[in-house]
Amino acid sequence: MISKVAAGNAAYLQQVNSKDKKELSTVGKAKEMDKVESLKEQIQNGDYKVDTKKTAEAVAKDLI
Hints:
Blueprint: H1 4-15, H2 18-45, H3 52-63
């Protein structure tokens, strides 16, 4: 099953020309890595807490 988000991203990327795609991917990867590193650090420190309400809402929306 292809999620709506994945399908939407694929459609968007098809509209972006190759020059723009390179610029966007560089910026996106840097921000993504910052977030990943931050999450890794929080998990290692024991500070990371799952937002169960937000997770439950996302799962419920996906099931509908």
